[in-house]
What does this fold into?
Amino acid sequence: MSRILMCPPTYFGIEYVINPWMDMANQVDNNLVSTQWNTLKDTLEEAGAEIELIEPQPSLPDMVFTANAGLLRNNIFIPSRFKFPERQREMKHWIQWFIKAGYEVKEIPTELPFEGAGDALSGKVLFGGYGFRSSKEIYKEIEDIFSSEIIPLYLVDDRFYHLDTCFCPLSEEFAILYEGAFDEESIRSLKEHISYFSVPEQEAARFACNAVVIENNVVLPTGCPETERHLQSKGFTTFTVDMSEFLKSGGAAKCLTLKLS
Ligand code: ARG
It folds into this structure.
């Protein structure tokens, strides 16, 4: 059973601008926010996940994006080090939750930024995105903590500022990704480690790659028919959820989740 951490969208909104999707003039519709978030939660449960919740906090609108809390592997939780002060204030809540839940919390003694499972994703190996929110150097420290190799991937398109906005491992062998988000060298090293389907740009911009994989089930945003067809041809069952309000903040299905097991 897959366990996933989510944070109710009680205080979600566009209160600052820290990525190209966010615009103070493009505010969210609160009714849609709660419908979409609840539908995502129900869909994940239907797809086989068990959901755990962290209590949302006032004035921390991006706490809904639990993927950015940190990176978890084998009971060790490495808390993020947010690039922007607006999100740094979330950290004490994440750390408290993981300590209370019995995880071993290992903070990285550095000033370098790192945005957790938003930028570090595992297939057979761990892949670490850098360039916008996390620094390349941080992955050396994380390799030491987890004693496993990390493949650094350089993100070059600011619409896809976290690795999970443009890359989704489906299994140890297969992934979907948007090629335009990476530099050539990163595409070469991706090809050495995983085979992939490159989603069309239009679907990448609907956050097709921001998908949650629960065994054979993939939960992804609506509006990505080619990606869905590809996933189905690989034997996956697809579930879609309208994520329009979260896209206004530069996030979608996967960003709203953190896999605990
Ligand atoms: N507004 C949030 C930010 O810019 C969105 C985070 C999306 N999270 C993710 N894992 N891609 O930080």
Remarks:
- The mean pLDDT is 97.
- The radius of gyration is 17 Å.
